Amino acid sequence: MAILKVFKRIRKPNLYFTLVALAIYIIVQVLLSAGLLNDFWRGILFWGAAITMVSLGLNLIYGFNGQFSLGQYGFYAIGAYAAADITYRWVNSDASGVVVGFLGSLLVLLFFMGIGAFLKRFYGLLPLTKFMAYLVATFAGYFIAVKFLAPALGPTLMQLLGGPYPGAVGRQIVFLMALLGGATIAGITSYLFGIPVLELGSDYFGIATLGFTIIVKVLLDNTDTLLPFPEMKGARGMVGIPAWTTWTWVFITLMAVIVIMRNLLHSSYGRAIVSVREDERAATLVGIDVASAKIMAFVLGSVFAGLAGGIRAHDVAFLHPNTFNFIQSFNPLIIVVFGGLGSMTGTIFTGFLWIFVLEGLLRLILPPGFETWRFVVYPLMLLLMMLLRPEGLFGSYEVPFLRRLLPPIPARKSSLEGQSEEVA
Amino acid sequence: MTILPRPTMSPEVEARPVILEITDLTHFFGNLRAVYNFSMQLKQGELVGLIGPNGAGKTTVFNLITGVYHASEGSIKYRGVELVGLPSHEIIQMGIARTFQNIRLFSNLTVLDNVRIAYHPHVGYGIPHALWHGPYYHKREDEVTALAQEYLDIFGLLERQNDRAGSLPYGLQRRLEIARALATRPQLLILDEPAAGMNPQEIDELMELIHFIRERFNLTILLVEHRMRLVMNICEWLTVMDFGQIISRGLPEEVRNDPKVIEAYLGRQSALLK
Amino acid sequence: MTAALSSLKKPKTREEAILSRSNARWLNRLAQGLFALFALFVLYILIKGFIASPAVFLQQVLNGLQLGFIYALIALGYTMVYGIVRLINFAHGDVFMVGAFTSLYTISILDLHRWPLRIWPGIPETLGTLIGVVTVILVSMVTSGFLAVTIERFAYRPLRSRPRIAALITAIGVSFFLEYFGALPFVFTNNYITYPRSFDIVVYRAGTISNLALGGMWGLFGAALLAQAVLIALSRKGNLTAQAWKDHPLVRFGLLFGGFMAAVLTLTNLHVEMNGKLWDLTASNIMLVIMGSSIVLQVVLHYIVRQTRLGKAMRAAAYDKPASRLMGINVDSVITATFALGGGLAGAAGVLYATAFKQVYYLMGIIPGLKAFVAAVIGGIGSIPGAFLGALIMGQAEVLSAGYISTPMRDAVSFSLLILVLLVWPQGIFGEPPGEKV
Fold this sequence. Notes:
By secondary structure, chain B is α/β, with parallel strands linked by helices.
């Protein structure tokens, strides 16, 4: 009879949303298969989805949680390169990427949970101590993965899934592991980074995340010299990534991001996250663990960015550190501010619009010299928006599916009459 | 060294357990001594006032109790547990709630959500359920919602449940703040200038409200106020502060006639004596 | 610890959970120990490098000093603005860039660095160039200061009543705008332009330094030190004149200028052979000019902030804006003055940076700007001596990591330093943790 309960729960907005989403999926899939959507526009669509995911992550961190972060592109890059490396190694008959990147990350997560449970039994922990503990857990987990799991499980896994050029099923499984691995690595990094940094006020946090993005870019430029990843070829760019991103994958990941974010925001954790944005001090004094709410939003937002990176990497099949230059990292910020902080609908709409118009339409219509003027116009648009309509295009409007539920008001008798409603 | 111990009340009150014991609390902001040798003993169920001219340090004492500041010296024991050093949110979870001088609601959340937030530490489901929205999630959400609605009903806010908290008139916002504080199920409630901005009639209603919640929720209430009308009529005994120190303590009539208290107020803000 | 492990069953209530915890003291010690090990390891690398080749190490230190002094000028702007309006002025790095470009034009088009030599042909070359260079710097300072004030007036002031984030985003927008407007072909273009130095580089090494200069610097330092010591002693005893004079800019100038110059010149003058290794350090006149200009400007700033009415108003406004307004201080003017001073210093820094690195381009302000901000944070944001100290540290960190780790990593190290400082010492060296009235 639990099934009946589930059906009672299906509300109209959920139904509409599901139907519309399915319709979009089918239409686009048909267009693609029939060749009506050419390569350029397909690329635009996929790019729009990726940017939207990154921007949704930023909206969670900044729009809903109030923490001004410029680090999304750092996690976008980490997710992209990590996922790309995993699949690159796979198609070169090396399963170590999957084992370390995916299984190793899961192991690290397990260790994190253990450390978390252990640390809960103490009070008076310094951020340094928490950071060290989780850092040690990270090293331990990946060390075990590299030294023991990879040689032990690698070949078996490779055989199990059909070798370096697996069939359709095998390929999806490897791709899934790569995507999740990249996203998890981004999440682990953001957790470690967040522990010391989230305590700071909003301004410092912004600068610290900007510094993070710069550090990531420097590391990406030196993946083959300072870091032991010769296949990433540092500043020359990584090639040979299998182009496994399909419309189905893009659709699934985008939907997953939207639904997960919506569910989180509608739950009690979502209320806690928003209360931190509203008034951090008051939230503490109502019993909310502010640090925990902040890190939850930050890590989830970073995971979304990492996922987007994986999708993008396997679409373009080429990665270059310059794509993740910190100047580019302001794109999601502009998208989120334009669409409306605190509106998922706004972000989704503006994200796709951004790419469609600025990379798609305008590239076709306007002359090449337009490139340099772009970066003059963007900030002017941003400034105008801040001055004239700071709440963005959509304000806090949401489509019904994404909108917060307003429970019905029960008919009750009040013990205290509603007196003195006028302001004193 | 406890200066001015608590006044002896009726034997029935004296028999109750001590809920809050502050000993020699001292706090510095840099070189500025904001609170000095503050001590107080509250028994369960009492309704006690902390008064004094502006800047006397009353709100600082509240902030020290609720962990906003880590006390430089001294001890604050709540039901025998040392609070100094604990982070604020844990102090609240242990059963102390407070309201603010200037109302600090979550303005962009609904009235209902403001109260539901108070249940977050006890929400009972973890992140997996929050992301999945399965039957257990819905069950807990419904329970929390029902509990919050009860509080709203008590305070006459139920009809405005889905309104944006910031859109409420001032009086209702005050009530919502108290409702939210009570939803954390405290045993000790600290009210920081609850009568701010109210006219005498509203103050009378507030007094009824405070009596009502004390009975209904079995609370101990510590109140900071500098509107004498409220303080004189409602508090069982008072502590008077000036310049961070206790200058007087006792029953309202005694304190009112204490020359030290009169001097502190007249010398500073005589207009406040109502 | 044993209590923690033995109570592995789930506690019943939140209260029990909170109360049954153990103190994390030993865990904290452990973490601090690990961190100390890491710090020791870094120290070990540096010491190893020093021992391997002391001359190379010290040369890096000297280069780091040069960089640090430039960063100091930029950092001061950040720290002063943040102290007063709590805004991270993202556009500050671009004001620095504009200062550099202004000097590019004054030198290459107007020949401004040689104007005394044109007007008074008989004047000695050094003196004439000196005056000319000072003029170039001043012109850049004025331009940059003016730009900073304009930005404040039109971009930041309208948003004063809005949440801080709005101003931060606007600052980012202004920064972008300056950069990409500058990149347009009819402005600064997006090319890397070779910068014409306003004076020729001269390298000093052992033997080329006159004993007079060396002795003079030590003398200056010694005299200033003596004066400072005497003044402190006298002021402790209650002597009012001493108390007024002990912070006098001349004393400060003597200490800083004399001290740093003496140290650099002495090191450069060394020509020692030790264990078959040659101590042969070089310093260029550019380095000396940078150090000198930076010190002069900082001493002047110190004078303004400490001894003038404007400075007092600035300090009051930074401490408590509403109260300052009530005291009759025109806070708007004070803010404008702060931006002007900060912008001017950044402009000077731009000229010095361009002279040192012989290149200007439209994005040159970003990375030094960010590093200078990190420097201000390290020193304690809002603190002027902190900005100086933090900048010196950043200079050293950048140069040493370029030398002993690798050149591309130096940016990564600089920003990791920020995270490190925030982890261990969030208020910075001279800073205070920000309070909040509840």
